[in-house]
Amino acid sequence: MAPADWGALVLLSMIWGGSFFFGKVAIAEIPPLTMVFARVTIGAAALFLIARLTGARLALDRRLAAEFALLALIANVVPFGLIAWSQQHIPSGLSSILNAATPLFTVLVAQAFTRDEKFTAGKLAGVALGFVGVAVMMGPALLGQLGGQHLAAQLAALGATVAYGFASVYGRRFRALPPLAVAMTQLAFSSLLLLPAVAAVDQPWRLPLPSPKVMGALAGLGVLSTGIAYILYFRILARNGATNISLVTFLVPVSAILLGALVLGEALEPHDAAGFALITLGLAAIDGRAWRWWRGG
Predict the structure, then answer these.
(1) What is the DSSP string of 25-52?
(2) Secondary structure of the chain: what % helix, strand, coil (to 5)?
(3) C-alpha–C-alpha distance, residues 292 and 123, integer Å
C-alpha cells in the first residue's frame, strides 16, 4: 500500500472507532433494528446531499441493482444488526477484540474466491500478529469475559466479522465505480431492505422520542461512522484489495487508545505498548516491503 493509502486506513480506523461509542450510547434507548435502520438511512441521506452538490451519479440496471442489494445485505444489514444486538450484552472493548477477527475471515474468503489475493506466509503471520496484538492491548480483564453467559452475543459479534469478510471480497466488483456513488447506493439499498422489518418488529413511530444525547450519537453514527467512512472504505478497497482494507479492524482499538491518551490525558499502559508493537509487526508483515528490503540488503 502507498503511504497515502496507509494514511486513509488510519483515518478510517479513527472514524470507525467512534462507531462503537456512538452505538453504545444509542442502544441504551433505541432497539437494535431501529438503530441500524437509522444509521444506514442517515448515512445514505448525507451521501445523497454530497452527491447532489458534487454531481456524482450512478446509473442502475436490473443486474447492478441486484448486486447492490446483496452487498447491502452482507456489508450492512447482517453485520450491523449482529453488532447492535451484541452491544446490549457485551462491552464495546470486547466487541473491538472480536471485530479484529475480520482480517482472518477476509483472508480465508479471499483464498477461496479470488485469484490475486491468495495465502502468503506474510499475510498469515501478519494477521496472527495483529490479532494477538489487539488481544494484548485490550488486556486480560476483557479477555477473561470470553465465553460464559454472554457467549451468544460474542458469537453474534464474531458472525459480523464473517459477513465483513465476504463483503470485502464481494465489494471488489464495484472498484471501477466512484466510491461516493457506491457507498451512497449500498446504504440506500440497506435502508430499503431494513424498512419492512423495522416497521413490523419495532414500529419506531410508537417509541419514545430519543434524548438529545442519543440523537447526537445517531447523527455521528450515520454521517461520520457510516456515510463518510464508506467513501474511504471503497476508495481503499478499489486500490488495495479486500485483505488490506480489512486491516482497519486492527487499527480501530489503537486509534481509540491513542486518542484517549492525546485528547483525554489517559495513561498508556505497558500492555498498550506491547499490543502496538505486535500490530505494527503484523501490518509490516502483510505489507511485505520491510521484508523485501531486508532480503535485498
Answers:
(1) HHTTTS-HHHHHHHHHHHHHHHHHHHHH
(2) 80, 0, 20
(3) 14
Q: Which amino acid is at 127?
A: V
CA gap 47, 222 in Å, rounded? 10
Q: Is 282:133 a contact under the CB 8 Å cutoff?
A: yes
pTM, two decimal places? 0.84
Question: 15-25 pLDDT, tens per residue?
Answer: 887 777 788 78
**178 by DSSP, 3-state: which?**
coil
Interatomic CA distance for residues 85 and 154, integer angstroms: 10
The residue assigned the cell 438511512 is: 41
Full 3-state SS string of 204-272: HHHCCCCCHHHHHHHHHHHHHHHHHHHHHHHHHHHHHCHHHHHCHHHHHHHHHHHHHHHHCCCCCCHHH
Provide the 3-class DSSP secondary structure of residue 279: helix
